[in-house]
Amino acid sequence: MDRLIYLDHAATTSTRPEVVEAMLPYFTESFGNPSSVYGFSNSGKEAIANAREIIAKSLNADTRDIYFTAGGSESDNWALKETARVYKTKGKHIITSSIEHHAILHTCEFLEKEGYEVTYVGVDENGIIKLDELKKAIRTDTILISVMFANNEIGTIQPIKEIGEIARAHGVLFHTDAVQAYGQLPIDVNELNIDMLSASGHKLNGPKGIGFLYIRKGIKIRNLIHGGGQERARRAGTENVPGIVGLGKAVELAISTMQDRTSKETLLRDYLIDRVLAEIPYTRLNGDRLKRLPNNANFSFQFIEGESLLIMLDMAGICGSSGSACTSGSLDPSHVLLGIGLPHEIAHGSLRLTLGEENTKEEIDYVIEKLKEIVQRLRDMSPLYEDFMKSNKR
Predict the structure, then answer these.
(1) Which residue of the set 326, 327, 356, 357 is catalytic?
(2) Is it the case that residue 46 has pLDDT exceeding 70?
(3) Is 326 a known active-site residue?
């Protein structure tokens, strides 16, 4: 392989050198347990407090409302499971969307087995939640609405402010999985009426295995993990000090560079989308053309299988995906693509390319040319494509 072009930043990102540098002392020099009482542990305590302050400021939140976790999936589980258990005397009804990440959907399935009722609100052809359907789904026993900020597969940004207003007007708690959006879009939890928010470090050039859950003050939510009194007695376990420091540094960098970085990504994204749609026939863009993450492009190519496409792209040194990294081993078509109304045969031929700050126009040109070659090669081997072309010549 002569080159590597990484276009799967929605799956994970590289850890920036500045982040690694900030973390290193807490592995070897300042390694004390921050829960200890002696002075040697103070540097860890101070580092955690500093990271918490950076994150809180990025959301216009109170530092006391930020709780460190092992990542987005834990944060999602904590928000849904423990809200359900605490507020079950009010009701046992939860609302979410049909295209959520599996960390939400599988948690909802678990809660349904525990006797809770979940309504899965549909989305339109671009992946935007149907607000009228959401409003109609709210009942007197509804305790929680959980809708992701932006979809991890097709990049569609949800009308979060409107959802927050609806939830607030009905006295229902509102949680959002912001794993893909945090660091890519400005987020103010007060302006958007967000009660709980999940995020993960490795999506914004931070380390893996660290994230946080924002819990607005006053929300009664119990511990998901029991043990010691860490995180103000709400999340047990010795703090991952290097990870927390790395997350704080990554957030600091992401927020300070957001405007310039996302402007560059948006230009490259649009260049990629425009050329692919213009130069590869029988192709569609999945997700809203404008209301999408700056770095996300998701296509469906008729008459081919996405798995074959990914293998051939990999042979050309190009890293992409067919959807969520959490379901990359599944042969089933994406639930997100089915949720926006694509038939199985088209959903199977999907490709997600997600850009990063380091990607260049020259790389995108190379990807487009290789993509054109590979799609045509796969179609030439497809009996369905052959039949289609013959029928069109009649």
Answers:
(1) 326
(2) yes
(3) yes
